[in-house]
Amino acid sequence: MPYLILVTVLWAFSFSLIGQYLAGQVDSDFAVLVRVAIAAAVFIPFTRWRGLPWRLLGGLWLAGALQFGVTYLCLYRSFAVLTVPEVLLFTVLTPIYVTLLDDSLAKRFNPWALFAALFAVGGGVIIRFKHIEGDYLIGFLLLQLANLTFAAGQVLCRQLLARYPTEQPLHRFFGHFFLGALLLAIPSYLLFGDAGKLPQSAVQWGVLGWMGLFATALGMFWWVKGSTLVDAGTLAIMNELHVPAGLLVNLLIWNRDADLKKLALGGAVIVASLWLNRFGRKMGRRLHPG
Asked: Which of 241, 242, 250, 274 is deepest in the core (most CB within 10 A)?
């Protein structure tokens, strides 16, 4: 779990950096393309092209296309019909998708993992909830597709590494993940990008570079590596920790308004969900020791 906690901290800073220096100033499709291109450039020099199971490589390309392709295409377009509070509220459903998809691929059902994920979602709702107004069905569906594909990419990577073990270390073939992401990031920018909204300052380019190297390249690498070391319930819950972590970073550095009571209560609920998940695993081992 240390890998997942480290990445949660990285991504907590990312939310604030995007909101402060990129959102509304730099074309979103260009920002995604730069992030993925930098990450691909980091891993391609180490990448093996032969001697690995084709199902493993194909699955990594698919996972990359899901997590940095479909997810971001839907996420950014949801802002056209949803307010920011609505977007943030609807993202808390990701842990449920992680749990259900992992159980589905493994052909099992773990009620404790699902319950813990739902409990974590409750913590996210406590922190993020705002009154929702207007017609938001289209935006809701777009965002749920984004949540689903982000969860699917995580679960797919986790399952691939478990089903196709290889003597090669992860960094020798993780470049395929970002090549898959480029398959959608490039045409997305060509079709929808705005060349008039490119970075205009060294700070904006610096933020993009930081996002590409740390949040995307190292962040996704450590997240996938960490996902193989925990159970699906813990992975689902870790998807919720970015909510209080992101708000805390934003509050401490940029002094944005935040409801500290909701932050503390929601964070406590999310941390408690980790305990629930561990308790459920222990109970399961006692009831089914074999």
From this structure: 241
